[in-house]
Amino acid sequence: MTFAFADPSAAARPLYVLRPDEVSGFLAGPGAAWAGWLRAIGFEAGLGELRLLPEAGGGIAGAVAGYGTALARRRLRFGLAKAVAALPAGDWRLEGVLDRAEATEAALAWLLSGYRFDRYRPGRKPAAPPLLVCPQGLDPARLLAMAEGEALTRDLINTPAEDMGPAELEAAMAALAARYGATFQAIRGEELLARNFPMIHAVGRASPRAPRLLDLRWGETGPKLTLVGKGVCFDTGGLNLKPSSGMNLMKKDMGGAATVLGLARMVMALNLPLRLRVLVPAVENLVAGNAIKPKDILTSRKGLTVEVNDTDAEGRLVLADALAYACEDGPDLLVSMATLTGAARVAVGPDLAPYYTDDPELSAALEAGAKAGFDPVWRLPFHDPYDSVIEPGIADLDNAPGYGFAGSITAALFLRRFVEGPRYLHFDIYGHTPRDQPARPKGGVGQGARALLEGLSEMLKL
């Protein structure tokens, strides 16, 4: 979908953004004409509280929105978007004492609150959204790139598997490459075996929709950034079949792929001075006579053997081949993103994006980027003493050790075995908002992409 700011020369109505302790000063000053009205309706400037301001002729002169307390803002990211959702169409400008970070969050929240997923309601005609005049001193192109990249991620995750299988994910990635002049190729079906991607093939071979490895490259100069996203378009669990409750949201199991594509869109739209590569192993994990079986032993692209102790731990298998392939190209920074483990959700819930790295400089840059991009992340450890847990004895590695603890950490350690050379970040994301939140409707959501975008300058010394 397309996002936009209002024309800065437009005659925009004011949206006065007030903290609770600023209300009395507003009523005695710029808001004196509406003081009686606002007192009568009990406006207290709670976070996201909105009141329209009438004009003498019966129209709307402007509006006031509550910015709430500092505690309220810490507890509810993008809280001002609650007010935006209730504004009528037209052009608006922010009025109030907001610093640069606060204005940035408000503008980004405004854009993201305009997201709609209406693909399956073609007769629905949404109301025209209110448009914001981008506050002075901000970079509208960067904010628009963030919103449009996030919308791509959400659209891909929200689309059901019937319409977002490996071929459709390939088409979406090819379209993104064409839009920004990137090169694109796909390795499909039996060609995966000929080109030595045995674990991608093994996971996806039970589906009638052929497995594939998707490869996008963009940029001619600068440091090399490679993004690898888990593209399991639907996950039944394979022969270790999930219960129906565990399968209901598995259209989102390509959330890692969707997120790296959203980030790639941001990078290319902003024409960052780097060489970008995106690798997506796109498969379905289904049940058929040729499906991988528990206790099968697979040989990976890297040559490491893997005992399959749970066919529902398939994401790390396809990522392993893609990560080994990525390292052959010598990237400066390698990032993997995957909806990989339920253990990560138990640890940090759906709102935080947990990540792993051994590099303190990468972590510091990412944490700063998360704050700047209003995209919370949380570092978990590559805890070396757990390495022995993923060694089954009969093969080099175990894809699902029966340890019973630290499931996200052992999965991350498994992936790390396939990375040699580059600095490495791994994200174990959820990719879904379980209930409506300001600027984040229930459904697919990107996690970690804005944090990475804002941290890349320091990570890659751009």
From TrEMBL:
| Source organism per UniProt | Rhodobacter calidifons
GO terms of molecular function = aminopeptidase activity
Family to which this protein belongs: Belongs to the peptidase M17 family.
What name is this protein filed under? Leucyl aminopeptidase family protein
Q: Which domain of life is it from?
A: Bacteria
Q: Residue limits of the Cytosol aminopeptidase domain?
A: 152-452
UniProtKB keywords: Aminopeptidase, Hydrolase, Manganese, Protease
Pfam families xrefs: Peptidase_M17, Peptidase_M17_N_1
InterPro entries per the UniProt record, alphabetical: Leucine_aapep/pepB (IPR011356), Macro_dom-like (IPR043472), Peptidase_M17_C (IPR000819), Peptidase_M17_N_1 (IPR048816)
Segments forming domain M17 aminopeptidase N-terminal:
14-128
